[in-house]
Amino acid sequence: MAYSTIGRSIPRVDARAKVKGEAKYAADIELPGMLWLKILRSPYPHARILHIDTGRAQRLSGVKATCTGKDFAGFRWGWMPQTRDEPPLAVDKVRYYGEGVAAVCAIDEEVAEEALGLIEVEYEELPSVFEPEEALKEGAPVIHDYRPNNISFEFHMDFGEVEKGFLEADLVREDMFRTGKVIQGFIEPPAAVAMWDSNGITIWAAKQSPYFLYRHLSACFKVPLSRIRVIQPFIGGGFGGTKNDSVAGDFCAVLFSKMTRRPVKFVYTMEETMISCRRRHNMIVYSKMGMKKDGTITALQQKV
After folding, report:
1. CATH class of the 28-129+183-276 domain in this structure
2. Which pTM does this prediction carry?
3. Angle between helices 210-221 and 248-260 (to 10 degrees)
């Protein structure tokens, strides 16, 4: 059997544009009249939001609009149906260090950054919890009020006769393993330029899965999918990380464009990416394995 690709050098269709510096990434997009977006983030991992005052920021020369979580009318999104628990900006309380609490758009990035320092937020710091097993204990701080046991969702998978496999084993070994948080390490942070006009929503976004974003935008802004266009430029790495999902900046950029009728751009810093974007969580894995003397595995039971 002859193979047409295996063992051969295959030219990359995107290589020439990249090596010549002609490839356009989301951060390279520039449109006439474009505004810049910045997000103010919480300095606390768990706190109640008592008051937000954006008045001073709104009065700064060059600022065009501000918003808070309440401007999104209760919308929440998530990568899976069971985890649709994330508002674009925090409402009433923050649940992790770096969660966005307010946003501003201005004529350039520098003015937007200056305006963040003028937003006043009054917090009531709440007890925090940082370890999975501590979060499951009775009396642990409740992070999500609608999840009083701190369990986002729980599922079980069973294949075959596990208990029978343990009885047939010559050796049963039990152990516990810990993993650390994993940041995918892409060199391009999340970025996008959003435009709301008479045709609907157009957004140039650094996404590996544009269909997630356009469904999220449709749900958030009550716009038909047929009037939302997600344009995927070149991607500076992703590796299954946050570029498979939407980020708060996507929603804020679209909202600001709707408010101002001008294109709105954001580019996260790497610090923002690491503290606020999707990553692989640290895990505790309890594993029980049954095996024969010849190395055959007869049963495996795990709790993560």
Report:
1. alpha beta
2. 0.92
3. 50
